[in-house]
Amino acid sequence: MSIQDQLHGLHFLTSDEAHLDAFEPTLRGVGGVYVGVGAEQAYLLVAWARAEGALLLDYDPRVVAMHGLHRVFLLESETPEAYLSHWTEEGAEAARALLRGASPDARSARLAVGLYDRARRRVRHRYERLGRDLTAPWFLTDRAQYAHLRGLLRAGRVRALCADLRAPEGAIGALGEALRRGGLRVGALYLSNAEQYWRYDPPFRRNIRGLPSDRRSVVLRTLAARPDYRYHTQPLGDFQDALGRATVRDVYQVAPR
Q: Which CATH number fits domain 3-80+135-253: 3.40.960, 3.40.50, 3.30.110, 2.40.160?
């Protein structure tokens, strides 16, 4: 059963991981290209890593479309306060106008505004919670981080793609080849809690092992726990080596319970 089948009808337009700053010390100075699943948590991780570029992946087209909304608002907003205003009740009409103006046609505009209207309160509440829970400076409290993130977007170094980490052919395999041809490496690979939904099959193994890495490259994952998640890091090279062993079948053999 695919992750799409298991999570049918669910759209994770925001993360519920409360303490992503547990990753900040590991990410500090990692650089490289950030590759990760999920929604707005990518912007925290990219900024902490001071990534040179970012590939934002998800199997869900709505999550990928959410990155389109964030992109419009981040590019338009010179300050964190201006960006946050687009997710408020007071700033909603101006935000809708921006999305319409950034859309190539009327249908795209309707879809963007519809997604925004469904997600706006959820995103606002998410950022409010992060403001309470995070102890490390992050891109909405640190102007240097915010400027770095906007700089990547303005330079065209952030791409959002609909991709399945377990697809036997497609974006992930091509991504590894493209990075290698460009002399680039993955700095951080963020898997969220996706690994909990599958065993390591041959396509996933090939896709992850095909990503160029070095001794600084890291894997970030979250695992179900109470009341939050367990935040686990691992050198990417070690994970790639583990995926080369048939005896390693699932995440709990690399991140024991």
A: 3.40.50
